[in-house]
Amino acid sequence: MPDTFPPNAAPGRWTALTWLAGAVVFAMAPWFSAAAVLPQLRAVWTLSDGDAAWLTLAVQLGFVLGAVVSAVLNLADRVSPRHLIVAGAILAAGANLGILLAQGPAQVIALRAMTGAAMALVYPPALKAMSTWFLTGRGVALGIMVGALTLAAALPHLANGLGGASWQAVIVITSVFALLGGVLAMQVRNGPHQYPPAVLRPAQAWRILTGRAMGLTTLGYLGHMWELYAMWAWFAVFFSRSLSERHLPDPGQGAAYATFAVVGVGAIGCYVGGVLGDRWGRTRLTALAMFLSGGCALALALAILVSASPAVVLGLSLLWGFWIIADSAQFSTIVSEIADPAYVGTALTMQLALGFTLTAGSIALVPILVSHSGWPLAFTVLAIGPLLGAVAMRQLARMPEAAQIAGGRG
């Protein structure tokens, strides 16, 4: 990768990070819109629990479909990132606005899937673009971007706790935000650490599965994703039921505030994970984060079994929320460091596609486990993913490719 500027002196890199992080958060606002208005949508269309779950799953599966198509066409390596982000933002805004005209759950679910597919043109290209601005400090930079998205994912729960706005207003506002994200993205050009140009090679989409180092990185990422979105999707339901069982007042509102805190604290975790990944090495940080995250899930299962107080449960949940996302950006950073330089965007896109495919399974599995044996079993099963992912990252640390990661720190 050409290095035309000293690693610590790429002019304007922090300005580029600010603009691009803002662009991604705004452009992906439609992703989070359904969570903000889900209670109202359930009332409008009398949605079942299954329909409500599909509103979340549809976005995940739509993203997967969009990401696979993008990876096969090598779009993130052949088209300017800012042009892809603008296209994705416009498509997401249109699909999101379509909800205003929808006649029932089936149409809303289809529109949510279209929104997810549009997001595949936003997130992976943005990660690649930011990598061109940073060599040293890249873990922190991508951590800040993922942290901003984490905070954006938490805000709908705060809105629910405060009573929220009308669902039509939320849909319109998040659509406008998406268009604003596209405008912001147009202000950011690629940085000085350019990747080589790419040509169309569909097979590159599958190379991420064949190389051992990339395969271990992906296995680690899959372990991380196994628990992340399932926890984010179901924590509000879990905590609301926990408060109800204690006969505490306003369990729904209390759960909304708690979920905002548990998801939102991950924004700090992303930054800390970036700092530690750059200083300690990414394989070490990701393994540590997943061991701690899996440990928190197991501790929470035990706390439920012994009927711990809501304060104890919330405290463990906040720790879980911190560590469950602290490693997320570091997997993308590793890919940017060890993948074929001409196809970094394709590798990032395919890794994300595989991860979000897995999230659909874990999100769907949680309510089945809960109905069968309760929340302790669900949290125990979620803990399996990060614990296995941590083992994969320890193996990656012993491979020759580790010398390319975090400036030789692995």
TrEMBL record:
Key words of the record: Cell membrane, Membrane, Transmembrane, Transmembrane helix
Source superkingdom: Bacteria
Subcellular location(s) per record: Cell membrane
UniProt membrane topology term: Multi-pass membrane protein
TM region(s), chain numbering: 12-32, 52-76, 83-103, 109-127, 139-159, 165-188, 209-235, 255-276, 288-306, 312-335, 347-369, 375-393
Entry annotated with the keyword Metal-binding: no
Primary location: membrane
Keyword Cell membrane in record: yes
Gene3D superfamilies, sorted: MFS general substrate transporter like domains
Domain Major facilitator superfamily (MFS) profile: 213-410
Protein name listed in UniProt: MFS transporter
UniProt source species: Deinococcus arenicola
